């Protein structure tokens, strides 16, 4: 699985973290762009992993959907052709107050939301995920960056009638924007660290 980008961070207390975004070449044959986002707390000297979290993001070129797959089988499917709230499926209550992702999605994404507003709405949804501080900042930054870029690339290729050229165009779009993705993920992580007093 080739790595699109990898970046290490240090918090104000000397905690070390690493964020990586990997691309699965095997899924390309299935007309999918598949990212694995790995956020890890690491030892400062050798980089050994203390703890980590993984989330996958899959864009299906045929179905024009983005699937966010979380640990324990939790999944959110976003149909980029239909932006109605029904695109969130099979998700249990996540926050302490039993506020579900579906309720959150309905709140931030009204039925009349245009496709151009989708990226910002999904960004807000991702930032609302309750997570632990350091690793949570990295997961949120990686998810926001990955999903946002996939949506931008989707908008460039959404009217392409053939799937194989669309897959190639999506990969080119990601390749052209990989440096910008790294910068966005870095900036989002730093902002999150600052907001939580970790920086």
Short description:
This protein is α+β, with helices and mostly antiparallel strands and 199 residues long. 40% of the residues lie in helices and 25% in strands.
Question: Describe it for me?
Answer:
- 40% of the residues lie in helices and 25% in strands.
- A hairpin with an 8-residue loop joins strand 2 and strand 3 (32-42).
- It has one domain.
- The protein has a 6-stranded antiparallel β-sheet, with helices on one face.
- The protein is built from 4 helices and 6 strands; from the N terminus they run E-E-E-E-E-E-H-H-H-H.
Please specify the SSE layout and strand pairing:
Elements: E1 3-10, E2 16-23, E3 32-42, E4 49-60, E5 65-69, E6 75-79, H1 101-108, H2 115-127, H3 133-157, H4 163-195
Antiparallel strand pairs: 1-2, 2-3, 3-4, 4-5, 5-6
Helix pairs in contact: 1-2, 2-3, 3-4
Relevant terms:
single chain; about 200 residues; alpha+beta; six-stranded antiparallel β-sheet; 4 helices; 6 strands; about 40% helix
The strand count comes to 6
Helix/strand order: EEEEEEHHHH
Secondary-structure class: alpha+beta
What is the end-to-end distance?
31 Å
How many separate domains make up the residues? Answer: 1
